[in-house]
Amino acid sequence: MASHRKSRPAGTRVAGIRTPALATAALTSVALLSQSANAAPEADDKPSLEEVEKKVDDLYRQAESATDKYNAAKEKTAKQRKRVDTLLDGVAQRTQKLNEAREKLGSFAAAQYRTGASAPDTATFLLADTPQDYFDQTQLMDRMTGRQKIAVDDYVTQQSETMKKRQEATESLETLNETQGDLKTAKATVQRKLAEARELLSKLTAEEKARLAAIEREKQQEAARKAAELARQQAAQQQAQEEAAQQQESEASSSSGASSSTGSSSSTAPADSSYATKAEKALAFARAQIGKPYVWGAVGPGSYDCSGLTQAAWKAAGVTLPRTTWDQVNAGTTVSLTNAQPGDLVFFYDDLSHVGIYIGNGMMIHAPKPGTYVREESIYYDGESSIHSVVRPA
Q: Which pTM was predicted?
């Protein structure tokens, strides 16, 4: 039987022949190329040190933002819990009054039933849970004496108020549960962000950590340079203002006498003096906290987060600030950076997730981030673009 396999042309066979050794070499080359191709992405997947630093900083910022949410939820929860307790007390008082009104109605109904002065359906009406439903029945209203009518009206009022208080308490309890849920969510977010940051840092080698520290020192040097530049600008501005004031005073003295100039200058001095006095107290408190650890959600006295520190500092000066950075930024007058005075609050980032208290010369006292301590630092510690606004709180 003839074979159905087609024979190969001789030329093709000779040209295409491969020895086992050549085939093995070819396969090995392919395997190596495949391994190289697979290995390349692994090397590329490892982030650079700069990328790690940025990621860690972002995580710390996100943690601070989540901390503000936690602080807001915690404050709201405390207020809501207080409201719930008040409402529950009100419900208890209303229930007592309702019971007293019910007993009074019962005594009227029992007396009428014994004397036959009232039909049985009247007693049913007086003892019903919702007597308002029967008010349209004028034949019953006609049978009631004045005292009975007052008793029924009192009962209906107490019942209505009690139901209202119970509804308010129920709604308040639901709100409390929601804020407690927000509190747990914010807390979990903070812990997750901090854990991610710690994990990234733990993967760095000793050499990488040293390089990261060097990068941080360079940033601090640049921040110090910018702070010194701002200090020079503020000093020049202050000198120019003083010279302008002296010139104005001199001109006023020559034209209308020194007395009028004295009166005009005294109108602005008390406000500035008052603020400076309060700011001095706030700064004295802040300086006394230097070296204490940053702990998210903390308001002292052993540790602080950023807004907890500024709130406590101004409280020492007799000024009450809100708890969160989002509210503190609205608790005063916004001023320009060049007009910043000691005691002013400096806010950072578009999400207002950080705040420090200005001490002058481009420097501030703040609680920076987890793993750090309250310290003096340039307001340019994270670059000029990170500065959001300056607010004078008092």
A: 0.62
